[in-house]
Amino acid sequence: MSKTPRPSRWGIRRHGKAFLSVGLISAIGILASVGFQVLTSRSLGPEAFGLLAAFMAIVGIASTGSSALQNSVAVGAARAAHSPEKAISGSKKWDASLIEAVCLGGAGTIIVLLFAQPLATLLNTGLEAVVLAAATIFPAFLFSRSLGILQGSGRSRSVAGWTSGGQAFRLILIVIVIGLSLGAISMLFAVFLSTLAITIGSGIQSARTHLKPEGVAFSRDTIIVLLLVIAFSWLTNIEVVLVRGGTSELESGSFAAAAVLTKTIFIVPGMMSVYLLPRFVSSQHDNKTSNRGVLVSVGLIFTGGVGAFLGLLLLAGPITLVLFGKGYGLTVEYLPWLALAYLPWAMSQGLLIRLTAITSRSALVVFIIAAVIEWVGAQMVLPDVFGMIWLLGILGSSVLACLVIIHFASLNKKKVTEV
């Protein structure tokens, strides 16, 4: 008598295949992004590359807000998908998420344009770079809104596909620009054009879902989700600025190089969020499923982080030489320990996926307190870079412990709405 195969207790086979496909699609985007950096840096001289770098810096700052919007829209879309009676009628064109995208994207564009000249002076670049950056911000927010709807509706492969497709299309345009010897300004326009193209394409697909995220524009939950993402981004990026202001150029440059490389461990929780966030929203009243998802995701991040630490402990020298060249001796010393310091932050990001799904106010309070401690602590330990690394590790571990407590406290509630 044959036995019916029992499903995996953890659903590893089903979820593993889905997450692997997202990872493979995302890998294409990562490779395209690396190709973009290599081609532009090699084809442009230092001065011209500085123009592109300034442009990307402005767009990068705005991307923090657009990423926060994507998470907020994804939560609202997932709730609407699992509560059809609460979803806004498909005939209503201006839902809350569209209002938020237009307001935030429009405000970002206007602010950059108003301060175009001071920004150009500060970044030592021309006005054309600032104007093109401002023009890129608005479609970037609309793109994030479309990705949020697709993510909330469970189309994780589409989210990864549009993101990676945009990076690949940008690379193709850059190859054409270099082949035609069109110069740096044309490269900036290529970035704008690729952003506009994926915004239109993803907008068409998201419209076909006929899914309107529930809620009103800039509701309490929306603001909490936006602030959660922005606060965590601040906590995991401001240290480079603090070290820059508190140490020598050699030390800060070496630290920045190490930070760029070690922060690749944040790619894993970033990819997990695309797949897991809508599932945490739909299962927020199912304690067993929610806890299982958290344990698996944090466990995978921990395993990958430990592997990165051990690999850098053994191969930091050769890796630094290949990627950065000579003159980065201090980077070799910083790399493994910075990777270890960032590990609890990466695990915290894994926990944050679920805490975002339940719009945890307690997590936001933790992040605000941690931001103050990080700033004050940096003033105390710098210019000791290793002291700063210790501070990051201890603070990250403390934040992780607090998020674990918040997570289990929320599980003890019969009906979880917020912590």
- How many individual β-strands? 0
Contiguous runs where pLDDT drops below 50 for at least 5 residues: 1-10, 86-91, 414-419
Major sheet: size, sense and barrel closure? none
Envelope shape? globular
Helix content: over 70%
The value of Rg in angstroms is: 22 Å
Number of domains: 2
Helix/strand order: HHHHHHHHHHHHHHH
Summary, kept brief:
The protein has 419 residues and is an all-alpha fold. The protein has helices at residues 12-43, 46-82, 96-114, 116-122, 127-152, 156-179, 184-208, 220-235, 238-246, 249-262, 267-282, 287-324, 329-357, 361-381, 385-411.
Explain what you see.
Helices cover 81% and strands 0% of the residues. The chain is mainly alpha-helical and 419 residues long. Helix 2 (46-82) runs parallel beside helix 11, helix 3 packs antiparallel against helix 5 and helix 11 packs parallel to helix 13 (329-357). It contains 15 helices and no strands.
List its salient traits:
mainly alpha, 419 residues, globular, disordered N terminus, disordered C terminus
Question: Strands, helices and their partners?
Answer:
Layout: H1 12-43, H2 46-82, H3 96-114, H4 116-122, H5 127-152, H6 156-179, H7 184-208, H8 220-235, H9 238-246, H10 249-262, H11 267-282, H12 287-324, H13 329-357, H14 361-381, H15 385-411
Helix pairs in contact: 1-6, 1-11, 2-3, 2-5, 2-7, 2-8, 2-11, 3-5, 4-5, 5-6, 5-7, 6-7, 8-13, 8-14, 9-10, 9-14, 10-13, 11-12, 11-13, 12-13, 13-15, 14-15
